[in-house]
């Protein structure tokens, strides 16, 4: 029995996330509301344990892609390209914060769709569109079920611009219709895509995601986002990357690739701390979560460019 449970968790570690959802919901229901400290601990733990490490494998992915293409891989060139993309995006954030946030939301939606629906064939237009709508739905669900908590973070990220205030009041007043419309659009396009190119989705996997999403709606924003991002998206991404790297090196162990992510995880954490310190000293108004999300956006763009090349 014990061995069976360990096997299931090893094959599908997202069951642990489901378990965590139940623990948090029960705690919240029977004991007290989750304190801010507990929320922050859950958020930071998941971001550090899986969120950042899944992106810290990009150098291995790039190396594997180059190997398949018979191209020579240089870590130095990889790092330069990565940092250049981040620097350009940071400049765009500095000059046009509203546009940058929009870019972040669109690429995140695309990235969530691409990772979660990894079985979907690349280059089939209807499925590409389905992935995007799927990502938008997931992201909107998490953000719009926490609209009051999202608001101050977003306003600190982009400043109080009049067009943002207008769009925000529209969103605030239409949370339910927006979610219904997106849900309906996703269902419709999913059915059309399935009728054109049938894909067999694991029902049990979809059930796990559903539990995580529904639970997230009843939890505060930080644990809600961390449960999806660290407890679902990053774990699925790890699985995809592991499978991709094993195509050329079947003996690769999961422990080995996790350890390989550590140097860049540590580098990312140190850079984040420097970034937080810099913004605290030099920015007019400072909110650590806004800065953290801007930092996540900066590392997401090159990460997406690399993971998109995995076939
Ligand atoms: C939760 C949240 C936000 C969105 C975060 C997103 C979109 C994260 C995407 C991360 C990705 C795609 C990482 C890739 O590995 C906002 C609106 C910025 C601020 C309010 C809280």
From TrEMBL:
Annotated keywords: Cell membrane, Dioxygenase, Iron, Membrane, Metal-binding, Monooxygenase, Oxidoreductase, Transmembrane, Transmembrane helix
Subcellular location: Cell membrane
GO CC, alphabetical: plasma membrane
Topology of the protein relative to the lipid bilayer: Multi-pass membrane protein
Transmembrane segments: 12-34, 40-61, 82-112, 124-147, 178-197, 209-235, 256-277, 289-306
Pfam families: BCD
Catalytic activity: all-trans-beta-carotene + O2 = 2 all-trans-retinal
Cofactor names: Fe(2+)
GO biological process, one term: carotene catabolic process
EC numbers for this chain: 1.13.11.63
An MF annotation (GO) of this entry: beta-carotene 15,15'-dioxygenase activity
InterPro entries the UniProt entry points to: Blh_diox
Class in the EC hierarchy, top level: oxidoreductase
Top-level taxonomic group: Bacteria
HAMAP family: Beta_carotene_diox
Family to which this protein belongs: Belongs to the Brp/Blh beta-carotene diooxygenase family.
Function description: Catalyzes the cleavage of beta-carotene at its central double bond (15,15') to yield two molecules of all-trans-retinal.
Entry protein name: Probable beta-carotene 15,15'-dioxygenase
Organism of this sequence: Arcicella rosea
């Amino acid at each position: 029995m014990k061995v069976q449970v360990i096997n299931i968790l090893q094959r599908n570690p997202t069951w642990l996330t489901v378990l965590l959802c139940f623990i948090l919901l029960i705690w919240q229901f029977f004991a007290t509301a989750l304190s801010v400290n507990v929320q922050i601990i859950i958020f930071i733990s998941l971001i550090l344990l899986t969120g950042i490490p899944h992106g810290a494998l990009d150098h291995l992915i790039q190396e594997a892609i180059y190997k398949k293409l018979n191209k020579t891989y240089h870590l130095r060139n990889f790092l330069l390209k990565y940092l250049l993309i981040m620097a350009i995006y940071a400049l765009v954030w500095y000059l046009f914060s509203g546009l940058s946030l929009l870019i972040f939301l669109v690429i995140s939606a695309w990235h969530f769709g691409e990772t979660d629906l990894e079985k979907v064939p690349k280059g089939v237009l209807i499925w590409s569109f389905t992935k995007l709508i799927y990502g938008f739905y997931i992201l909107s669900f998490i953000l719009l079920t926490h609209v009051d908590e999202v608001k101050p973070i977003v306003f600190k990220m982009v400043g109080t611009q009049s067009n943002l205030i207008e769009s925000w009041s529209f969103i605030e007043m239409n949370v339910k219709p927006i979610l219904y419309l997106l849900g309906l659009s996703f269902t419709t396009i999913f059915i059309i895509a399935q009728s054109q190119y049938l894909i067999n989705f694991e029902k049990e996997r979809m059930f796990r995601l559903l539990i995580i999403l529904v639970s997230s709606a009843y939890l505060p924003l930080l644990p809600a986002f961390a449960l999806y991002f660290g407890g679902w998206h990053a774990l699925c991404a790890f699985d995809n990357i592991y499978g991709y790297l094993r195509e050329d090196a079947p003996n690769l162990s999961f422990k080995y690739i996790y350890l390989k992510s550590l140097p860049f995880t540590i580098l990312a954490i140190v850079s984040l701390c420097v970034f937080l310190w810099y913004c605290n000293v030099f920015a007019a108004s400072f909110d650590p979560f806004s800065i953290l999300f801007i930092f996540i956006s900066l590392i997401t763009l090159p990460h997406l460019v690399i993971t998109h090349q995995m076939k």
